[in-house]
Amino acid sequence: MAQQRKARQPETRDSESPRGAAEVTATAIARLAGVGPAAVSNWRRRHPDFPKPVGGSVSSPTFDLAQVEAWLRAQGKLTQVPLRERAWQQVEQYPLGPSAALIRLGAAFTLGPDPNATDTPLLTTGLQLAEELGPAGAFGFLLGRHLGSVSRQYALTPAEPATLMAELGGPAAEVLDPACGFGGLLDAARRLNPDARLCGQDADPELAALADLRLTLALTGEGDDTSADNGPGPRRGWVDVRTGDALRADPFDRPPHAPGADVVLCHPPFNERNWGHDELAYDSRWEYGLPPRTESELAWVQHALAHSREDGTVVVLMPPAAASRRSGRRIRAELLRRGALRAVIALPVGAAPPYGIPLHLWVLRRPPVAGASAAPGVLLVETGSMAWPEARAAALDAWRAMVAGTGRADATAKTRTGADRPGVSHVVPVVDLLDEEVDLTPARHLPPTAVSGGALGLDELREQLATALRHASQLPATGAAVEAATGGGRASGWPSTTV
What we know:
Blueprint: E1 23-25, H1 26-33, H2 37-46, E2 55-56, E3 61-64, H3 65-74, H4 83-92, H5 98-111, H6 120-133, H7 135-149, H8 159-169, E4 174-177, H9 184-192, E5 197-202, H10 205-220, E6 238-243, E7 261-266, H11 296-306, E8 308-318, H12 329-337, E9 341-346, E10 360-365, E11 377-382, H13 388-406, H14 416-419, E12 425-429, H15 430-433, H16 454-473, H17 475-485
Parallel strand pairs: 4-5, 4-7, 5-6, 7-8, 9-11
Antiparallel strand pairs: 1-3, 2-3, 8-10, 9-10, 11-12
Helix pairs in contact: 1-2, 4-6, 4-7, 5-6, 5-7, 5-10, 6-7, 7-10, 8-9, 8-13, 9-10
């Protein structure tokens, strides 16, 4: 999932810098020289001959790369620019932008270089990097550097929650992400299901193209330095990434009884108002109710369910307000009654953007054919106070314990024991959630943590209470003594006020 890009700041260009010359920021200079950004600031202040800015802005100036390299060599601070840095500089300074440069390189890595290409420096350094790291490794490195530079412009799904979502989804022959962005969730699913068909969609053509190239190159298994698939090998799985708004223009629309994906993973846009409420009012995907205009996330939940096979798993990253907003309570209630919603997991603050709130994971199963009994309980997990490794383990252990009960995550009184952990996880009967609010916030329904120490702890607590009661029994006598000492009136010299 990707948010709209921020407007680019206007640039100022020095007349000495020829248009099209590669430029670098102070941070890039620090990487070139192997120092921290503070060292570059010191050089600018202490050395009058340090290259002058040729572009960028006052707060983030850019410098001519050739001038910077010459100055660093003259000062003995640079012997040779690393190949990775030279390749990234070509990507960063590509006239059409870094995304276009990555698409250009990805196509060259996949199909071979175009003999008529005019962007020779980009292709030359890119292909040299591919020889060093492998095509998948080179593309993964450059894409990772690009993601780091645009992390504030897009709502990216970090690797840890993406992996957890794929693990909750489980084994799959086909995985779909209807708002795939750069393909992070599908890449996590690929690592667990290397032979799966990976289907994705995004409204931004550049993001869809980058996701397609990322997954296609990774499936070749050639030197992806972020995976265990090192070394050349035959391509596995299949990639099908398309461009378009999934809610308004669904390219993966299937006939009513056609099987869907085994697993659907989604990190949808949050708090959208213009998601198509009016034109989609009679859409067949709204089996659980028409999503209110202010509940775009519930539209994505139902879209994901509609594209899942019967009994397939859906995992959606949700804002915490979606679990309790009154405007969505009817759809939440229907998801519970039909047995579609199977778990709500509250993640630690900072797990994924927006980083200031504890996001939730909704785990759903598309109900089987009519007549099948709905699951009587929903797993609620609260990991907000945990570090990430502990939170991941708690969520997976609780989910797997519930699923192991019957093989279909149908929680019953016999299967709750393994999934229940006081203060962390609890299987709540559906009937207990179907009140006026239908609030699915895990913390509201978890039993308190058990008293440490067992029976011995209770004995100590009883003794402390008895001591407190003995002390309290002496209070009336003390009050009488004070009254007698003061003659039944206000003590002489004591300050007083009227209230």
